[in-house]
Amino acid sequence: MSTIVAIPYQIRRITIDQVLFTEVKPPIDCKKIVLSRGAEDDGFTIRSNPSDPNQEKEVAAGWEKEIQGQGCFYPANAIVCYVRAKTIVGVLVVECFR
Q1: What's the predicted TM-score (pTM) here?
Q2: Which residue range(s) make up the domain with 20?
Q3: To bridge 67 with a disulfide, which of 6, 15, 26, 33 should be the other Cys (CB 3.0-4.6 Å)?
Q4: Does residue 38 belong to any structural domain of this protein?
């Protein structure tokens, strides 16, 4: 009989474009989320509210954005933030840690 162990880490890739803000939802309950694009891409914009530019931060190409906080918990499939590509349509890597 084998023991089932909860996977402490999940990776998802989502396609983002430069027009619409895309929801980021962790596939598992987690305490930390890391967002990144490759160095060949042009980075991305992150918002906590897709319609409010005052809640926006730009992340440069090749850099990561880590989302976590003291005592924070992000339930699976809950919207954590919204992202948009700066100019190049591409893939955003979403890494989730329990």
Answers
A1: 0.85
A2: 9-97
A3: 33
A4: yes
Q: Does residue 25 belong to any structural domain of this protein? A: yes
Indicate the SS3 state at residue 55. helix
Tell me the HSE value of 96 on the side-chain side, using a 13 A CA sphere.
21
Q: What is the pLDDT of residues 20-62, one digit of tens each?
A: 999 999 999 999 999 998 777 788 999 999 999 999 999 988 8
Q: Is residue 3 part of a domain?
A: no
Determine the length of the chain: 98
> Rounded to an integer, what distance in angstroms lies between the CA atom of residue 18 and that of residue 44?
9
1 within a domain of the structure (yes/no)? no
Lookup: tokens for 96: 């989730």
Euclidean distance between CA atoms 64 and 38, whole angstroms: 9
Which of 5, 21, 14 shows the shortest CA–CA distance to 91? 14
